[in-house]
Amino acid sequence: MTEIPVMVRADNVHKSFGSLEVLKGVDLTVASGEVACVLGPSGSGKSTFLRCINHLEKINAGRIEVDGDLVGYRERGGKLHEMGERDVARQRQSIGMVFQRFNLFPHMTVLQNVMEAPCRVKRENKAEVRDRSRALLERVGLSDKVDNYPGQLSGGQQQRVAIARALAMRPKLMLFDEPTSALDPELVGEVLDVMKDLAREGMTMIVVTHEIGFAREVADNVVFMDGGVVVEQGPPNEIIANPQQERTKAFLSKVL
Amino acid sequence: MTDQQTTERARPEPIKAVPVRHPGRWVAIVVLAVLTAMFLHMLLTNEGFRWSFIFVSYEEGKRGVMFTEPVLEGLRGTLLLTVFSMLIGVVLGVVVAIMRLSPNKILSSVAWLYTWFFRAAPRLVLAVVFGNLNVLWSRVGFGLPFDKQIGALFGIDNFNGQIWSIESKDLLAGFVAAMLALGLSEAAYMAEIVRAGIQSIDEGQPEAAVALGMSRGQVLRRIVLPQAMRVIVPPTGNEVIAMLKDTSVVAFVPVTAELFFQLRAVSARTFVVLPVLIAALIWYLILCSILMVGQYFLERHFGKGYGAAGRARMRLQTIQAEQGGVGAGGAGLGGTT
Ligand SMILES: Nc1ncnc2c1ncn2[C@@H]1O[C@H](COP(=O)(O)OP(=O)(O)OP(=O)(O)O)[C@@H](O)[C@H]1O
Ligand SMILES: [Mg+2]
Asked: TM segments (chain B) (predicted)?
């Protein structure tokens, strides 16, 4: 059996906001090409954990590695050194993030939204980026909207643009924070379809979601979080169909 | 479309109803018309206005007072002063606003002190003070601080750590003093406007940009400031117009190449008061109208992607921001269908 490389390794991650401890020792390993779906009640620290993975939040204890690199710090002689802004930014370039509220840049057209980071951050050739961005937008089914502003699109369309925008940086890992929670029910499917395609193509993904159906169909690993710790994890048919922990059962009985 | 409807059901007659009458409006219009006519009549027939003095010729062989050399020179001075002080105000204002929002306590306190001082000091007083600063220092320049004292410590007489310096009489007189006084004062107001603008941006915007790997500078230049401009431009338009009129305080610096000073000089010489004031008023009206046109186009440019509804929301946000509240975040971002 060949060893599958690890993309994300979180080890005993702690995070507090002031006196409120939100993450109390989260452990999670995501293999390359794997889709991990994170479930859990509101306030359990799911978003906070995702934000720690690309260093939008600084963790207080523990360690997070993405593709073998320690996030936000450099290890030298057994000591941790904080990374400068530049190096943190470089790490983030290979981690795409999709937000619940889309967060498209409203003053730019759809195409400009997608092209912005590759052109400005990676300083890639503009014509090349334009071709690639158009191809990405076509892939998410929005080739007719390239010149519209985000305000002129439906929520589902905006979220698909947001996915294309993240993909334009050619990330090796994609983080989704409740990507369909702000959508009208009839628009959820179109976004999930794009995500399924992505999973099928082998993208490593961590998806915080309340869409149990999606988790069951797409996830390789379902992670149930509550109270700042991972309560239970495993393949969807075990966790969703046959949870062992009381808290998981209680949560699933509410959302199913 | 119509075909489809006729096959289902006949289209009813378009409604032809008698519109509601608004007699009150008609009364108001008549009253206003009469008042306007009376006003025009007064303007044209009252000799006191001396229109020919203003427009045609104010002395034998000279042009109307609005168009004489010194007055036009003053006009140029007023415009230059407005442009340069606003430039200083906007650039420094952005810097102070960013410092104010910095997580670094020292930077934000310095910025707070700056706005506190320059908003408290009346522009007239500032103008006079800056005109007289050369009393405090004969030379101004950059260099090692306490250079003479350090020199004395090591037994060197007159050790000079100055890298560059200039006679302050040359630097801080007239136009430059006026420009600094107005510009520094303006920066304090602009800082507050820019801060309100930056704070009106939804937190998710910088967050999404940072998650894409953008640096703090890029986030500011590409994402935050362009969106903040929608909130910043309208009150800045007010500031420009206020500045245009406030340039008249620099007569106390003293700066003589300024519109109002020049017009008053004419009135002192000719003993004609009212028409000269009217001439000044007309100039200010013309300049403000031009500025308002500019503001319209700026607002349109920075309103890109927001549509009419977005612009109305923006107006509300501006009001909230000016009242010190943080504008409703995420306008124009909601998942509208
Ligand atoms: N920046 C912050 N400052 C202070 N407290 C915070 C901050 N961000 C999150 N929290 C707190 O941390 C806890 C966990 O929040 P988090 O957003 O991670 O939960 P979540 O699992 O994503 O919930 P939801 O399903 O509602 O999104 C909450 O109690 C929240 O109030
Ligand atoms: Mg959340």
From this structure: 26-44, 79-99, 111-137, 171-191, 271-298
Cβ-based contacts of A86 with chain B (< 8 Å): 215
Rounded Cα distance, B272 and B58, in Å: 10
DSSP A84: P
Residue of A nearest to B308 (CA): A151
Contact call for residues B171 and B120 (beta carbons, < 8 A): no
C-alpha span between B165 and B139 (Å, rounded) = 6
Q: Which two tokens stand for residue B251?
A: 């007569």
Cβ distance B305 to A106 less than 8 Å, yes or no, reads yes
Torsion angle (degrees, nearest 10) of CA A47, A51, A56, A57: 70
Cβ-based burial of B110 (10 A; exposed 0-12, middle 13-18, buried ≥19):
middle
d(CA A131, CA A112): 12
Q: Are B207 and B113 in contact (CB under 8 A)?
A: no
* pTM of the predicted model as reported, rounded to 2 decimal places: 0.81
Please give the DSSP secondary-structure letter assigned to residue B65.
G
Mutation probe of ligand 1 site: the residue of A46, A48, A100, A180 with most atoms within 8 A of C-beta: A48
Which residue bears the tokens 């107005």? B182
Find chain A residues with C-beta within 8 A of B302's C-beta.
107
Q: Of ligand 1's atoms, which has the minimum distance to the CA of residue A45?
A: 18
pLDDT digits (tens, 9 = 90+) for B198-207: 999 999 999 9
Q: How many beta carbons lie within 10 A of that of residue B35, not counting itself?
A: 10
Query: Are the CB atoms for B93 and B194 separated by under 8 Å?
Result: yes
pLDDT in tens, chain A (256 residues): 567 899 999 999 999 999 999 999 999 999 999 999 999 999 999 999 999 999 999 999 999 999 999 999 998 888 999 999 999 999 999 999 999 999 999 999 999 999 999 999 999 999 999 999 999 999 999 999 999 999 999 999 999 999 999 999 999 999 999 999 999 999 999 999 999 999 999 999 999 999 999 999 999 999 999 999 999 999 999 999 999 999 999 999 988 7
By alpha-carbon position, which residue is closest to atom 1 of ligand 1? Answer: A17
CATH topology for B68-304 is MetI-like fold (1.10.3720)
Q: Which residues pair with B36 in a beta bridge?
A: none
**Three-class SS state of A70:** strand
Burial of A176 (0-12, 13-18, 19+ CB in 10 A): buried
Nearest Cα to A50, choosing from A33, A80, A21, A71?
A71
